[in-house]
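Sample 3 of the quickstart, ligand calcium ion:
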Amino acid sequence: MVEKSAEDAIQAAAADLLRHYTLGSEFETYLAHLKGNDLVLGVALIENHEQAALETAKQISDLFRQPFLTASGSLGANLAIGVAVADPSDWNPELILENAELAVEDACEKELRQISLFVPSMRAKYEHRERIRSSLTAAFENDEFVPHFQPQFNLKTGKIIGIEALARWKHSRFGWISPAEFISAAESTGDINRLGRSILEKSCMQLRRLPDEMTLSVNLTLSQILDESLPEMLLECLTDTGIKGYRLKIEISETQLSKNLDKIWRVLSEIQECGIAVSLDDFGTKFAALRHLTEFDWDEIKIDGSFVDRAFNNEKHAEMLLATLNLIANMGISTVIEGVETVEQRDALVELGCGLGQGYLFSGPLDFDDLMTLFFSRPQLEELVSV
Ligand code: C2E
Ligand code: CA
Ligand code: CA
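Result:
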């Protein structure tokens, strides 16, 4: 974790560097923010010539490629630069600065950060996000969050073995809103734990109607995992709904495992001690880190659909998938393959020895009534044959 003093030192050193670099030039620069642990340095750059501004942004970005000296030693920062171009006849400093900051945010979302030029759609996206954030309180009051459920299948027999709860928001004005939009909003307003509890309680209540051998998987974000009261909340919920711990799995995405690892392993172990299974989600989305497999005693690894897709298109990736599956199996951990969309994929996965999967081939997320319809329309199937 980056100490506050190091953060301040980077900010001060970066400000000096930028001041020096832009001294006497016509550019106006603004050190927007430094996102603590991520060492993201935002620079909003304002100019009235797009090309000149982009060139300056590139030069500043090159300056930060090397680690630089601060009072706390040599440090590196990821630089995100937002560029806003202003027309001198329409000079509104506050608005221009806001535009540049929106461009910085956009640059932060890019994989390699770097430089973003402000475009009006960034403001529209920001305004939509603000509308979502500001309607969260009313959504809790009106009880607008519900879980949908995606069934998980035995790839060979087609039998449903469990369900994954996926949160949905039925917004009174905007209709159904995807979790991709509201989970991060709930995190930024501090509502994520309340949301998580509501989804968990509702899902456990529904699970009571399904056979005892069926499991329920719920997703948790990093901030939920890092919340001290999580194990207690999970236990309370199990007691209140009468669900046994072995029926519950919590999922954490591999994409969230970059910092606070010791604390994460501690909390996850505590959860396992309560008899709840712990699953590593989205494994192989980018660079599957083998150390994540060894540093914690996972009960389950969920292989991301993109890993499978890559394996279908490239022999080296296919070998990597096979080696990964063997490694996980040899470690005694079970696997679930996500995003199974075609019969060909299902057949090839069965051939590779994969047991469990979920995806549109079988079913997307369903509301509970539709899940029950699916469940009762699928008596124990005979083993499916690969062709
Ligand atoms: P996830 O946990 O990886 O969930 C799988 C996502 O893939 C779901 O999107 C699901 O609808 C979608 N999906 C299912 N089958 C297929 C398929 O065959 N192909 C493709 N391309 N996609 C498929 P959804 O429901 O939009 O959820 C997005 C993400 O939001 C989830 O990704 C999860 O990380 C997060 N999320 C959902 N519900 C919750 C929640 O209650 N709490 C938290 N903290 N996060 C949640
Ligand atoms: Ca998941
Ligand atoms: Ca996933």
